[in-house]
Amino acid sequence: MTRPRFGTSMFVNPIWLKSARARLRWKHVISWGTVTVSLTAFVFMIIYMNMTEQMGATAAAAAKAALPGIVVVQATILMVLGTGAVASGIAQERDDRLIDYQRLTPMSPTSKILGYLFGLPVREYFLFALTLPFLAVAVAISGFSLFTLAHFYVVFFTSVWVYHMTGLVAGMLSTRPRFASMLSMGFVLVLYFALPNLSRIGITYFEFLTIRPTFFGLLQQELPQGIGDSAPVLAGIDTFRDVPFFNLFLHPTVYTLLVQGFLLCVMFVVVHRKWRNQSNHALSKIQALAVYSGVLAFALASVWPIIADAGVRQQVFGALERRGPGMHPTESLLILLLVLFMIVGAAFFVVILGATPSRHTAIEGLRRAHKHGRRRVRLNSDAASSLPLTIVMLGLTFVALVTPLRLAQHSGMFFIDPPSLMSTLSFIVLLGAIALFMQGFRERCGLRVFLITIFLLWIVPWFAMTIMFSAQNAWIAGAYVGLPCPPVAVWIAIGTILESATPVPGRSPEYLIPELVQSRHALLTTSLVLYGALAAGMQFELWRWKRRAHSSVRLATPALTER
Amino acid sequence: MIETKEIRVDYGDVHAVADLTVSIPTGEVYGLIGPNGAGKTSLIRVLATLLKPTYGDARIANIDVVEEPARVRRLLGYMPDLAPVYEDLRCWEFLDLFGAAYFVSRRERRRRIDACIDQVGLQSKRQAIAGTLSLGMKQRLVLAKTLLPDPEVLLLDEPASGLDPMARIDMRNMIRDLAHSGKTILISSHILNELSEFCGSIGIMEKGRLILSGRIDEILANLSHKKRIVVETLDPAARAAEVLSGLDGVSSCKAEALRVEFDLEGDENDVAELLRSLVDRGIRIKAFYERQQGVEDIFLQIGAKEVS
Lengths: 563, 308
Known about the structure:
Chain A is mainly alpha-helical and 563 residues long. Helix content of chain A is 74%, strand content 1%. In chain A, α1 packs parallel to α5.
């Protein structure tokens, strides 16, 4: 057996070659190629001809205007069709158990992942190549800067790989091909349309997971006047400027590559682990901690300059102010803290969900440990309790949430007096209690029961609260009903912290519904008692269960060394 | 060559394999028998490095399958039950994929693909799209893929499942040829008598446990001192059965149409004496022989039928 050299191996990568043979047969090439060439020609010609014939534009301006149309076709091919092909292709292989054959070959997991990443969407790459002549013609006629074009396509392709990797992750995690394809489409929609909206309030990094800033910044601003000067386009162009990152200002392309690189690395690790063993958790405990730290760092890096730098704050919230009546610094801080909490909370939730062992995994780990003469499961093992991880993550969370508060306090812009120690402590204890309850419940009861209970305990009270607020104006009763929902409890806690914030003229205190201001301390105390009791009860129950599991495993599993 | 020590595989509360210890020497063909759900596939998947055991040691060529799966995989050929194929690849492309994935050089690959296609009798289907093949042909194609890297150890999980009788005979012949080639083979099968033809040893699994393991001849010798005799008559066998049931040492007598089958406790002299008794009592005998007991007899005598 001879091992191919890595650098030359992509086009002889057997998995890539397999996909190329299967997906690029003549009948596919001719049918799909005809559709793609026709569509791209149509897009190019309708823009070019209309501009030259109807609008009297020069050939160069018309060709330049056709470029975004071609890019949209390319993006549809590679990002939408390509991602679907990757997700359904890998899930199909898993479903048919063909992936077992690949697992058994001596190729490295990295080669296999690259083979699938570039192989499964090989037809889409071919279709993309068919659009290039039109692009070349448009560039040749328009004299569009080749450097700008290359710059754009670097970001275009890193975005494509991020999406394809989401497809691969969806395919490795889900069990059914159709579901995998839908899951990856869902990922793409969330990444592309939902999360970028957070950039409007300063959480910029989701925007840079997409090609939108680069697309608007590099292509649209080079367009001839009169084309693409609508408000959304102008706003898009506006995002393509140096991105504040803590105290630095990064070039948007550098920032894009940084954010996308982080996400690509995380997804690569997930797929790599799943390749090695399908039953592995998506991330090990240490990897989960690293990913969580990364998310916190990016979130904090976005929030930091908004609080610390009045110019950046004006830049970010100025856009909001343009849309509505003037926004007071206290309001902007509340929004920022709530959004930061939502991101951190969502990341915490996902990491705990993924890194906590099921009961069966935990017992299997205990059996394995006992069999091999160890009293405990190794801390980084999938079977180990996620309690230590939760505690470390909580520590990081406190740092990430208290830092902007301290920063806001020192900036002199948001607070008259520093927030009271009690309100800050209450906030920290509340977060800790929610996290420990969540971790204990997930570990003790398993994923299905956990998710159903979370729905009943978190979402249903929120629904009830909303109805009571909107239909009955029952503000206080509604708030008590909604307290089991963590965002409501955290909202009350943040509101209490902001007691000493600069008042909003005429509307003080604006950060809570006015009817709740009088009851805020009682509400906070109730939420602390509720989550404190839930966390203590659940951790105690988990501890009791572990003791029972240890004894039953000890009795039922004689150690190898004892035999 | 293949060794497991107290292997356990759990799926939630179900123990698919429970503290199983087995040793298969180099060059041995070992048949794994048991009802559906006995844990055969789980054991094979552990050995194939596709499933992590809850605990226990499993080694192939003295390499730990859990600790060093990559090294073990170089020695292995694994064929799952209802072997899937890439439906949109041609047969030679399917084999070429795995030849390349096992780092077989291009020139050598071409030679080996031809040899494997010949070995499994798919010469006429070399250019066919795999999805158009019959189930039996797909099984052959997967067997060819399994043999392509010339593995030292073959793990064959129900290789003949779902095949029609003709395809099953072909598959049996191929495996018999492999058994003669000196490879270490672990094969699970439901078609018990076929295992007798090429297995030196067998293991019977029930509820995740190996309830019997060893060389077939030794197991047979230990299991029973009785001989299974078959008598074919020219007249209805009921008369012969009536005579036989009155003779010493005869048990489990079963008559059907012109054939009667029974157990006889005794040596060769007793067999000869019994034959003479039948002839003396006017039974017209067409054939009289001792039936060789096989894997099926062992399985039936052990009576393993419970699942995990």
